[in-house]
């Protein structure tokens, strides 16, 4: 069956050069995954400070991979050597695939996609790592919405196998095929879903995380006991409050807020303390303090 509004396209593009826009926790992790699998990667940040933060993130993460025996020093050097940095989207003119991983803001992401649409070649794929915004609405910022697709990685991106591929009603089937082929090359396990806030995993996960925050907020149980219950009772690798610190409380708040506005399910109405912690700068691991304190 053909996708409504889509024109047919049969070319299979070759993807060698990858652009990543935004080198925060997710963007840096995504750049690492592609470079690790031999792609040339250009990472773009807003300014030199952003580039420096992204570079540090990459160096730390890959050093950890070496310590854990996942990479050799030579492989690490090769990986880092395949990544170049820039503060201009114009440097992505030769990218075959660009993954946008900027802040979770509709206006920011739309502006980036609109500019990329003019910069890259007509057959290049524009992917967004959004976790809750409408990919369809994001794609409407471009003149070629058929080449826009969601490519949602999980944190930590170098470790988690899952990538949710989000198709809109106008994403070209060939784009979905090519994205699946690229994800296969980087060792990820894609699942495909439609464009609804939370996609598959977050739609299931965030009600649970929010409920854990409420338990903590209402002093029903301590943070350690909430987390221990899920780790030792249910075999989760980390408890919900520790996981929120990993995701980032600002990101978690944005995801819940978007899901709540779209679905009006009170499970997703962000627990009040979440907003207070974000306002106070307690963002989790990345700021050194969230539900727990980090060195
Ligand atoms: N490259 C390759 N491998 C790496 C790596 C890197 N940069 N960094 C770490 N690893 C490997 C380690 O070598 C280790 O492998 P082995 O188990 O084979 O030794 C493995 O990854 C785990 O790393 P660590 O031992 O350092 O850490 P850990 O065992 O404490 O696990 C964790 C940490 C992976 C985060 C684990 O606790 C976990 O999976 N937690 C759940 C994470 C989760 O649920 N993520 C989804 C969040 S939701 C989301 O992301 C969506 C959204 O939109 C917000």
UniProtKB/TrEMBL annotation:
It comes from the Bacteria. Residues 198-294 form the 3-hydroxyacyl-CoA dehydrogenase C-terminal domain. Residues 17-195 form the 3-hydroxyacyl-CoA dehydrogenase NAD binding domain. Belongs to the 3-hydroxyacyl-CoA dehydrogenase family. This is 3-hydroxybutyryl-CoA dehydrogenase. The chain holds residues 5 to 299 of 607 of the full protein.
């Amino acid at each position: 069956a053909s996708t409504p509004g889509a024109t047919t396209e049969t070319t299979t593009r070759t993807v060698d050069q990858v652009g990543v826009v935004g080198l925060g926790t997710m963007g840096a992790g995504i750049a690492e995954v592609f470079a690790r699998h031999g792609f040339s990667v250009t990472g773009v940040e807003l300014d030199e400070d952003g580039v420096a933060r992204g570079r540090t993130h990459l160096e730390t993460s890959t050093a950890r991979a070496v310590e854990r025996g996942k990479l050799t020093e030579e492989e690490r050097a090769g990986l880092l050597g395949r990544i170049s940095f820039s503060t201009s989207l114009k440097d992505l003119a030769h990218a075959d695939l660009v993954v946008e991983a900027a802040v979770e803001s509709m206006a920011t992401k739309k502006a980036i996609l609109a500019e990329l649409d003019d910069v890259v070649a007509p057959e290049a794929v524009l992917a967004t790592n959004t976790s809750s915004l409408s990919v369809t609405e994001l794609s409407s910022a471009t003149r070629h919405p058929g080449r826009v697709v969601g490519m949602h990685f999980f944190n930590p991106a170098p470790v988690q196998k899952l990538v949710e591929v989000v198709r809109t009603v106008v994403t070209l089937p060939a784009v979905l095929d090519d994205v699946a082929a690229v994800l296969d090359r980087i060792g990820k396990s894609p699942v495909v879903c439609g464009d609804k806030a939370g996609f598959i995993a977050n739609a299931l996960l965030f009600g649970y995380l929010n409920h854990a925050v409420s338990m903590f907020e209402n002093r029903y149980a301590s943070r350690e006991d909430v987390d221990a219950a899920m780790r030792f009772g249910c075999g989760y690798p980390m408890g919900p409050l520790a996981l929120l610190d990993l995701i980032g409380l600002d990101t978690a708040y944005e995801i819940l807020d978007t899901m709540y506005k779209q679905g009006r399910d009170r499970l997703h109405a962000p627990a009040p303390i979440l907003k207070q912690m974000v306002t106070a700068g307690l963002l989790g691991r990345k700021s050194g303090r969230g539900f727990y304190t980090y060195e």
